Amino acid sequence: MGKMQDINFRSVEEFLDFLPDNERKIVDHLRYLILDCIPECKEKLAYNVPFYYKHRRICFIWPPAVPWGKGRVSGVELGFCYGNLLQDEINYLDKGERKQVCMKIFTDVSEIDADLIRAYLFEAAEIDERMNRK
Q1: 6 in a structural domain
Q2: Kind of pairing, strands 102-106 and 76-80?
Q3: In CATH, what number is assigned to the domain containing residue 28?
Q4: 62 and which of 16, 48, 77, 130 could share a cystine (Cβ 3.0–4.6 Å)?
Q5: What pLDDT, on the 0 to 100 scale, is given for residue 2?
Q6: Three-class HEC string of 105-134
Q7: Torsion angle, CA of 108/50/31/78, rounded to 10 degrees?
Q8: What is the pLDDT of residue 97?
């Protein structure tokens, strides 16, 4: 089986330095929101992008500069690993053909509704806690 990526970052800092400026601004803003809302989470690279964990994977940030598979989108993805469990009455998150992961794509930092993202992050952290207690 061949490698899906031709790059391999050794650290989050190396990942960040690799990004084009427009993607870096979006990623920095999303990282700030995640680390502010879930300060006890751990940030580590998986598949060459940052994932955020407490007990399980909670969410990830995937910019288009880091290719994976076919059909990558042009914006930075904020993915929720258990997005299927989030309350999303307004259908803000894209579920696509997935059963579990949901995401939102941003092409500019101005598209980020910080209050709405915070609400999803707090709920995702709460789901992580509930799943850990089971």
Answers
A1: no
A2: antiparallel
A3: 3.90.1150.200
A4: 77
A5: 42
A6: EECCHHHCCHHHHHHHHHHHHHHHHHHHHC
A7: 50
A8: 86
- Residue 17's pLDDT is what? 96
* Three-state secondary structure of the chain: CCCCCCCCCCCHHHHHHHCCHHHHHHHHHHHHHHHHHCCCCEEEEECCEEEEECCCEEEEEECCCCCCCCCCCCCEEEEECCHHHCCCCCCCCECCCCCCCEEEEECCHHHCCHHHHHHHHHHHHHHHHHHHHC
| pLDDT at residue number 4 | 54
Backbone angles phi, psi at 28, to 5 degrees: -60, -45
pLDDT at 8: 86
Q: Compute CA distances 17 → 20, 91, 126, whole Å.
A: 8, 33, 32
Q: Which domain holds residue 92?
A: 12-133
Single out the residue of 63, 67, 61 nearest to residue 81, CA to CA. Answer: 61
